[in-house]
Amino acid sequence: MSAHSISKFLSFAAATSLALSPVAGAAQEAAGADAPLNLPANVSVLGNANPNVRKATAVVNGYVITGTDVDQRTALLVAANRQGIPDEELERVKMQVLRNLIDETLQIQAAQAQEMDIPQAEIDQTYARVAAQNFEQRPQAMDEYLRSIGSSPASLKRQIQGELAWQRLLRRNVAPFVNVSTDEVNELIQRLEASRGTDEYRLGEIYLSATPENAGQVKANAEKIVEQLRQGGSFVAYARQFSEASTAAVGGDLGWIQLGQLKNATLEAVAAEMSPGQLVGPIEIPGGYWIGVLIDKRQVLMADPRDAMLSLKQIQLSFEPGMSGADRNSKLQTFLQGIGQVRGCGDAENAAGALGATVVTNDQIAVRALPEQLQQIMLQMQVGQLSPPFGSIDDSVRVLMLCGRDDPKSAAGPDFDTLMGQLEDERIQKRAQRYLRDLRNDAYIEYN
């Protein structure tokens, strides 16, 4: 497995929390070693008298999964949720983490049974690559980070082992038996060509199965997940941990689809009205509840205007510290009046200098790289025009001048090999789900 694919499941832990400031050690804040603690003469222990003894949470074909294993893996998910997870939610999260650990153990055991052990050196090498991507070539820094959030290097390495083992199993036992015919690919190409110009959607999903008996509880759980997502939780992380759809392995990403592929009139109607970034749900569908997010939207086989490359000049007016509000307003009004007199991009530097502003030029920036609020504004502008001013009088105010635009060429027709690969991947994922289900059915699992 590539370091990129490993970093996807790390993204809900280290990669999303690299901005955290170092936490001072408790020892730095504690009193001196010989300071009195005022301990009672007789101590009544209310908890576990031996904190080094951990009760097993489950035994999977003889392999023990402890409470510590669950806690350390849960810590990765908690770290990804910048808003934190309420205490009342943690038990539900831990139950899902336990299910994931059971599946992971089954995958590792299945690989070992077929003499496909993952060498420790390969696990360590992958771990080091992840550290190199996220911690500037310093595995020790990632070790310290994992411990600081209540996890451990061993927990992440176990997850890496599971991922590598499962991918190896699929390559040997599933992928060679997945066949996609030339006729199937050609038929798909014809359907795409016939739908050229129609809308297609890239959706993320979280699916929770329900029965008439537990529908109320499942819906309540789904609503809690939506609440956490609205507070900033990672959709990818929640999909990986909680979704029961086959897309859970890729963070819930359905890829680019047309609405008819959802095969549910309710979901089709909801998705058609969604805007990129919008979260919806939970929506009741046959068999359970669905939570969705619209990642992006485009037209089939048509060039995306957001791929246009722009040449921009940013004219920025900054305010000196200590300026009064009246002086700031006066300086801003002078700037706004003067900027409207700029005669095209060639005059920008001179005009800006006269107004006490600065100019920064970028000759190759894609529309989609701009903040979303500016994208539609820039797409409506002509060369030489200025955007509305934006920013803050407390810091700086800016305008963008459009100095050039290279529109994307029309999209080429669908690539045969790419489409075949997509169809193969879809079938591999479906068979992988059945494979894992069979492993569960044949397993001996004892819960404590």
Automatic annotation (TrEMBL):
Q: What GO molecular function annotation could you give as one example from this UniProt entry?
A: peptidyl-prolyl cis-trans isomerase activity
Q: Where is the signal peptide?
A: 1-26
Residue ranges of domain PpiC in the record: 198-296
- Which keywords, in A-to-Z order, does the entry hold? Isomerase, Rotamase, Signal
| PROSITE patterns reported in the protein's UniProt record | PPIC_PPIASE_2
Q: Which Gene3D superfamilies match?
A: 3.10.50.40, Porin chaperone SurA, peptide-binding domain
> Could you tell me which PANTHER family the record lists for this protein?
CHAPERONE SURA
**Name of this protein:** Parvulin-like PPIase
